[in-house]
Amino acid sequence: MASNIPEESTSFVGRQAELRRIDNELTEHRLITLTGPGGVGKTRIAMRAARAAAARFPDGVCWADLWPLQGDGLLVASVCDAVGLADHTARTPVAALCEWLADKRLLLVLDSCEHLVDACRDLLGDLLTAAPSVTVLVTSRQPLDLVGEWTTEIGPLPFTGGNDALTLFTQRAGAAAPGLRLTTPLDAEAAAVICRRLEGIPLALELAGAQLAHSSVERIAERLTSRFDALDPADGPVRLPRHRTLRCAIGWSHELCAPLERLLWARLSVFRGTFDEESASAVCAGGPLTGPEVRSTLATLAAKSVLTREGTRFRMLDTLREYGRMWLAELDEMTALADRHAAHFADFGRRAELGWLGPEQVSWYRRVADAHVDLCTALDHLLVTDPERAQELSASISLFWSCCGHLHEARNYVARALAAQPAPSPARTRALWALGVAVLLQGDLALADALGGECARAARTSDDAEAVLAAGYLIGLTHLIAGRPMSAHTVAEQVLGPPPYDPFDSPGRLRCHLVQIFALTGLGELARARAEATALRRGCVERGEYWTRSYTDYQLSLISLFQGRPEESADHARAMLAAKQGIGDKFGIALGLDLLAAAVAAQGDGAAAARVYGSGQAIWRTVGHPQRGTPELRAVREECEQRARAAIGDEAYTELFHRASEERPGTSLARILAGDL
């Protein structure tokens, strides 16, 4: 059992009664929605409740953050990510998700649904019908109004007497001003006033506590009292609705920020997901805010709890981002910031593509994954304002997305960009290639073949050498998967030209050279394929390149198996798995596990082969395909199973295979990579 519940970065105070109530509700209901105003603590309570209930769900707890989503376009993709589904089929994502969850016994948590209520209602209606053993915990400012929904309202912390609100404020004050003790009568009374004024709302208390780094508790209490009294001076202190209390507290914190801090707060609201210093500087610098000032101001906003640090990245809570966007509109910078945001991520995509071939390749896979929501936001903007640039960006990141669980988004965005700008251009040619690779990975060979031909014609017309290589890769790969290795070899040979040439001259040349090696193996020219794969692997190691290297290990594992070298085959399969895990390529991981199982079976260890083969089956289910790859793998898989069954018997094989196939994929892969077969 595993889970992806976010780690808590600060202490947790109180809420024992709420947690007991939710724990009971999770045993009695299949859909529980925690409601309450922003900043009241719904997310933190959901984290605690999910962690406490995890042992009751054999397939784990799957957490989906919905707060970064601007619309419902990425809702299903976000839930697929959370449950570990990287579907490579042409089915609708909802159909794939329902099928994947149908036999699962897990807790799915959807955090921050209030801006996607209709879409969440529709999705959960389908999921709860298709997956009878799935329980869903939702946080939202309003109920979903779905049949069977159980709603639990989350209120603020108690703020009278010796209370949890005071405890939270005191802890945050101590974090902002280490060594501070609110023990004198004046300090204690001022702290109690702050908690009462802020009505125990956790986010408001966090913001107030952070101010103690620069102010006294008495001064903070005085300022808060003045601000709240000013709302209705004739009647004295007023009892505000909680959302207005929080808005008032946020506004007060905003006023206490320096002018550059307020400006950066507003500009950072353009980011939908987490962001790093580089992106913040590129998008938000300008006018009085220089690049270095952006970096230093990020630190001060984090110290004031406006931003939250997540490793080397920053996050702004949606409640604070909404306030920032209000001020961005007041500054009349909404359009300018959206343009700069899109321009930055278009450049980000270009740099990612350039970095694909070098030593930062794995790092770029991670960076593209971290920036996923903002890349989608940039594409949505460019599809309206600059479709040709949208073609460039979607093509630049398509290989990253196609490998790492976002194949549906890759196909969708490239197709939309092509439809938005039909005029011929180098960007359109690259987008045709990207679309072809996406549909090929989804199993549509006929469409991939047609797109490869269209891409090749456009490349020749524009005399674009790299586009010719890209088209050759797509056409050759289509031939390989269709079982036509001679055709694949011919195409690769034509576009590569006569040797000698450096396969690392460009990404397109490298990929075509890899197609040529695959074709040699398919044609049975094993000695030549081994020599070419070994040389190419050596070049990849020297350059720190992993994607191609993993596929040379795949070929060397397959060749070694055909040549009767099972130990060597197993070593290459393990190397492939390690590389594929590093870039998050589940399709490649599934291929590698099948090869490792075959190599282990060839060594006579039927029990280990059954377990590894079962683990591979679990990964294949996550990509939605029943064991794909080039045709020669079919015989390898059949022989693997025959050998393993012969070694341990049908009953033992079936039991071990089934048990491994039901294990959570991440757990089994970690075990296998650690050498525990």
From TrEMBL:
Residues 17-116 form the NB-ARC domain. Gene3D superfamilies: P-loop containing nucleotide triphosphate hydrolases. SUPFAM superfamilies: P-loop containing nucleoside triphosphate hydrolases, TPR-like. It comes from the Bacteria. GO terms for molecular function: ADP binding. InterPro entries: NB-ARC, P-loop_NTPase, TPR-like_helical_dom_sf. This is NB-ARC domain-containing protein.
